[in-house]
């Protein structure tokens, strides 16, 4: 059986198989070695994610020999938790301390269910507040952005802190994206979601972190002969048992 | 457990998660309902596919209650079988009668292993012979195209015949693409593989055929509440058991 990588998160995960999306790019990169499994839930915060984890990751049936454990899982929440409590998307807001607590719960759940799986956290991306005003998701009578870059940064730092406590890797997307001066236009399509270039950053950073964990094309098993390994003068030889 | 759609085929399947690829588009389209599983093997013909089927589709472990059966599977071979026997990619050539025999074997195997799964055949695409000369995959001392559009058409017709015999649906990509006068440039990147627009055709045709079989967003189960179903005044209500 081919190993799996699960992608768990909110809309930035759910939409990761759009044209040039980071999930599709992972599936393409690992096309002969790994199955990429999409578990993105648009609009979800960590409070709701905790409620549904048992349904997102059902207990393995059968042997319990670890055969169902994925190779890795990305956990990418925080963009919705960081909605401000006094703005138009307040129903998605989760206080910072609860966000940390929920992230810890998610990591514990995954570690218990999948003891050998590499867990990789991803921080929320930075926010372009002007673009958030131009692309409202709900009615916004106050005309103030429902997310700010400063708040997203607080949740990003909290995510990094939880990764540190849990001893697991983290992609600091909030910082990484802002290292490029034109990040607002280059990486964000509506001040929150990702352009193709933004998706590219996530893909590259996830591939890098997975490699640090020993998960890469160099170490993964290709389960059937590559065309380059098939002798044109005796092709069937490659398929002998 | 979320249902699966398997994509089995050659490089046009293996590369289907590239930017705008038809596999990625399927995964995006079904992002909350279906897992799309990639089983593309670049360069493979039906002769080699028959040899490896047992390894591509391992027998289900455990209960045998059909829980592991995918909802649907696409079978997309023929582009390599149709290489001419006296040209530079002759080692991939499979005679037309053997191609039909092999396709029938693949369908029988799948029907036996997965009795309830919808099987969908896809014919090879048309060939732009001039472009094949400009983009050789191997040394081509004769300077003649290793594939012709006429031969690809013969394999496409054979594929359609097998689908008819087996009583299963088929996407006639060879004909569909040539209905557009600029098909060579619009749909093919190197005379064989697909551009983003070519990928779009495959995606749309597969979605249409799946819908004919009763597999569509209208009939599939979304396994967790959509954000539109969550009451902003009482979000947790949506997550009660």
UniProtKB/TrEMBL annotation, chains A, B:
Keyword Lipid metabolism appears in the UniProt entry: yes
Q: Give GO MF terms, alphabetically.
A: hydrolase activity, acting on ester bonds
Q: Which UniProt keywords apply?
A: Hydrolase, Lipid degradation, Lipid metabolism
Q: Name one GO biological process term.
A: lipid catabolic process
Q: Gene3D superfamilies, alphabetically?
A: SGNH hydrolase
Q: Which domain of life is it from?
A: Eukaryota
Q: Which CDD domains match?
A: Isoamyl_acetate_hydrolase_like
Q: Say which family it is in.
A: Belongs to the 'GDSL' lipolytic enzyme family.
Q: In its UniProt entry, what is this protein called?
A: GDSL esterase/lipase At5g45920
Q: What is the organism field in this record?
A: Ziziphus jujuba var. spinosa
